[in-house]
Amino acid sequence: MKFRDLPIVATTLVMACGCAAAQLAVATPPSKQSVLRLLDAMGSVKTMTQVLDQTITVQAEYFAKLRPDIPADVMADLVSEGKKEAKPQELLDLLVPVYQKHFSASEVRALLAFYQSPAGKKLASETPKIATESMQVGQQWGEQIGQRIGERIAQRAAEKGYTLGQEPARQPKQ
């Protein structure tokens, strides 16, 4: 190496060290506590609780239709047991590594700052309601699209000479 190349080598080393330091700063994962604070600020516990309650209620309604012989008080007890078993904190603890994988410590701090702002607080407070309404809309849409898809598939099968929903004729045993 010649003396005249020294400034180029020095500049390259300084840039490489700076880039490595910047990557290290970005790559620093957030702590479990900071992720849990973020999830709390986001209203995740409240949202999860409402979604779980809604899911259990929908499931109970389905079972009630399926088994009308089960008395309402027994069904209410089953729903109560289901809600006791659904513990959002278990899911939150499982989500921490996911957030740690996708966000750096500085990004979590920035997100916390947002969720502590008026707009962030409003988003957190409205999210459970939005989730509940979205679930209802999604359920209605799912029923409609399921009906349309079923009709379209049945029509296509009929065009090809098949009838859906019926068992094929069985061959006699020989």
List keywords for this structure.
174 residues; mainly alpha
Mean pLDDT: 82
What is the helix content?
over 70%
SSE sequence, one letter per element: HHHHHHH
Taking pLDDT < 50 over at least 5 consecutive residues as the criterion, the unreliable ranges are 9-14, 16-22
**Euclidean distance between termini CA atoms:** 91 Å
What would you call the shape? extended
Compute the CA-based radius of gyration: 28 Å
Strand content: under 5%
Tally of separate helices: 7
Question: How does the helix and strand content classify structurally?
Answer: mainly alpha
**Biggest sheet architecture:** none
How many strands appear in the DSSP assignment?
A: 0
Topology (elements, then pairings):
Blueprint: H1 6-27, H2 32-41, H3 44-66, H4 72-85, H5 88-102, H6 105-115, H7 118-159
Helix pairs in contact: 2-5, 2-6, 3-4, 3-7
How would you describe this structure to a colleague?
The protein has 174 residues and is mainly α. The chain has a domain at 29-127. It is 79% helix and 0% strand. It contains seven helices and no strands. It has helices at residues 6-27, 32-41, 44-66, 72-85, 88-102, 105-115, 118-159. Helix 2 (32-41) packs parallel to helix 6. Mean pLDDT is 82; it is low at 9-14 and 16-22.
